[in-house]
Amino acid sequence: MNLRAKDSTPVLQRDHGLHLLREMLRVRRFEEKCAELYAAAKIRGFLHLYIGEEAVAVGVMQALEPRDAVVATYREHGHALVRGVSAASVMAEMCGKVEGCCRGRGGSMHIFDAAARFYGGNAIVGGGLPLAVGLALADKMTRRKQVTACFFGEGAVAEGEFHESMNLAALWGLPVLFCCENNLYAMGTALERSESETDLCLKAASFEVPSWPVDGMDVLAVEEAARQAVAAVRSGGGPYFLEFRTYRFRAHSMFDPELYRTKQEVEEWKKRDPIPNFEALLRGQELLSEKEMEIMETEIASEITQAVEFAEAGSWEPIEELTRFVYSEGPRP
Amino acid sequence: MSAKSAKMRTTYREAIRAAIREALLRDERVFLMGEDVGRYGGCFAVSKGLLAEFGSERIRDTPLSESAFVGAGIGAALGGMRPIVEIMTVNFSLLALDQILNNAATILHMSGGLFNIPLVIRMTTGGGRQLGAQHSHSLEGWYAHIPGIKVLTPATLEDARGMLWTALEDPDPVLIFEHGSLYNMEGEIGGDAGAVEISQAALRRPGSGVSLITYGGTLGKTLQAAEVLEADGISAEVIDLRTLRPLDTRTIIDSVTKTHRAVIIDEGWRSGSISAEITARIVENAFYELDAPVARVCSAEVPMPYAKHLEEAALPQVTAIVAAARQVMGRHG
Ligand SMILES: Cc1ncc(C[n+]2csc(CCOP(=O)(O)OP(=O)(O)O)c2C)c(N)n1
């Protein structure tokens, strides 16, 4: 599946192009609504928005199949939506309702979904990487040709768990796709202020893990890289590391005074906003009309309205059930 | 009243900041390090402004490497410095538990008394902010299990202001647990407030009918409960432990000897908790003084759920404290 011809002029199939745009927009609009609901105190706790980074999750998910697994961080609403977890169940989760994907037990930072093989929502930086290694180990031991995609920020590469996991995955030849979302800042700490070696692909290379940097603001580039990497991983070539260069337009969470970067820097990056740029590309190729864009926005708005209605109509889990799910209820297969 | 001792308004957050600032001014061996303590201003804004005043040598932003920077704090203390290490949240301190337990707490002993570790580690603890199961636990009781470290839990402005300096003067590692719900607590403090002793529990409210024994984030709720009880004709004495290790058994026993009844309020999980330890000490030392079994109000034994009503149900609340006190008083209904 070649999305770009050799001269790098995109050769896009219309349906696919529209699909990519729609998915990015869904995530954007969904999170804009989340920010509103946070201001209205319907969503609480920490809320980390993915706004600006949508091309990464959308592009990577195109390369995955339903049988594959995903491990993500606390900044995972977008990944969950694109992976097929319904907007309604994610929204209900964030509102703490029992109809949410985790019954309101997890919240924004801990989205899980069995059908989507979505293994969280991990809020310990680096904490998801060993899980991904283990999921892949199980696949390898049972000879399933499945891939585990593990998302994490560039801040996580400073944790021992990153290094230990990369080594284990490489040593045992495990089918993990490590997706590093390099948005340049870990909370307020810029990459060059936290890493002696800022070339993240070199770190991967030191474990003999093939790697390359990808423009994370370009959904087509992300998809292409992910497809190639997933193909290599699925064919038994061991893990792969992709560094997606991206940027978060919003604060780290809702409590961030943003003392560590300039407005001007944020504005510069907004010029590379993956959504309007991709929209322009589609229009340039006459794959998208004004009318279609309007329809797409309307459909997404209605999906989100329904998700909010679903969440608001939802119920609180009875307090008598507080101590459930500490241990399994009965045997499991 | 001299100008120096005139009362001033402050918050728990500002009191800790003033203490750190004073320590930096007073002793050039003191430095602060941790994630986002500098540019970001501290994840709970405790260290805001300190980078500008003291520079990046002494206000050191670290990468997300809890094990390494806590271990480096131990090493720096061995090397003659007086580090204050900040860990964002107690759940993240688990990544550094090896360094804290296997190095900080043991080197003095293993070296036959040759090397002491004058290190202070501060971290946020506790729930109540809907941060879910990876950011909300109260593990200070766990840490209090470990010989070789001291465990402080400031619950008042005076202790927030004063415990740090005393901790820095200690030749051995001291852990300070700041309950996240306290940072915005506001009140008056003496303009000359300074170091406080850390070896004794404090009587926060005298009473004669029942001893309510607590610390940290539950002190406020316990004092509220005492007021409710007073309206009900029950005179409750409130003990603030302040230091969980070494535990001031004397103050506890004196109080119980006077009231003959005890309720322990602890945000940790009940099993194997500091509340269990206190119960054991009462039973060991004042068994024949008791007119009723010791009662405990602890957190429900679940990882912290996100949904507000479930989190509230999981945490010790005023009504539960009142109910437990009434029960030991033999009041029913
Ligand atoms: C072990 C651990 N340390 C610290 C934190 C607090 N924290 C949450 S997110 C974050 C920044 C992580 O940055 P990065 O990995 O680059 O991901 P991003 O948030 O930029 O997506 C920090 C320090 C945490 N959750 N876990």
Describe this protein with a few key phrases:
heterodimer; A: 333 residues; alpha/beta; Rossmann fold; seven-stranded mixed beta sheet; two-stranded antiparallel sheet; 11 helices; 9 strands; 12% strand; globular; disordered N terminus; B: 333 residues; 2 domains; five-stranded mixed beta sheet; 13 helices; 14 strands; binds thiamine diphosphate
Any overview of this molecule?
The complex is a heterodimer of chains A (333) and B (333). Chain A has helices at 14-39, 54-62, 77-83, 87-94, 128-141, 160-171, 200-206, 219-237, 263-270, 274-284, 290-313; strands spanning 69-73, 112-113, 118-122, 148-153, 176-182, 185-186, 189-190, 211-215, 240-245. Chain A has 333 residues and is an alpha/beta fold. Chain A has a single domain, classed as Rossmann fold (3-Layer(aba) Sandwich). In chain A, strands 2-3-1-4-5-9-8 form a seven-stranded mixed sheet, sandwiched between helices. Chain A has a two-stranded antiparallel ribbon with strand order 6-7. Chain A is globular and about 50 Å long. The model of chain A is unreliable at 1-8 (pLDDT under 50). Chain B is α/β, with parallel strands linked by helices and 333 residues long. Chain B folds into two domains: 7-190, Rossmann fold, CATH 3.40.50.970; 202-328, 3-Layer(aba) Sandwich (Rossmann fold). Chain B contains 13 helices and 14 strands. Chain B has helices at 12-26, 50-54, 66-78, 90-93, 97-104, 107-110, 140-143, 157-169, 219-231, 249-259, 274-286, 308-314, 318-328, and strands at residues 7-11, 30-34, 59-61, 82-89, 120-125, 150-152, 174-179, 186-190, 202-205, 210-214, 236-240, 243-245, 262-269, 295-299. In chain B, the strands form three sheets. In chain B, strands 3-2-4-5-7-6-12 form a seven-stranded mixed sheet, with helices on both faces. Chain B has a five-stranded mixed sheet with strand order 9-11-10-13-14, sandwiched between helices. A two-stranded antiparallel sheet of chain B has the order 1-8. In chain B, strand 6 (150-152), helix 8 (157-169) and strand 7 (174-179) form a beta-alpha-beta unit. The mean pLDDT of chain B is 97. At the A-B interface, loops of A face helix 3 and helix 12 of B. Bound molecules: thiamine diphosphate. Thiamine diphosphate sits between chains A (75, 123-125, 153-156, 181, 183, 185-187, 252) and B (35, 64, 66, 88, 92, 95).
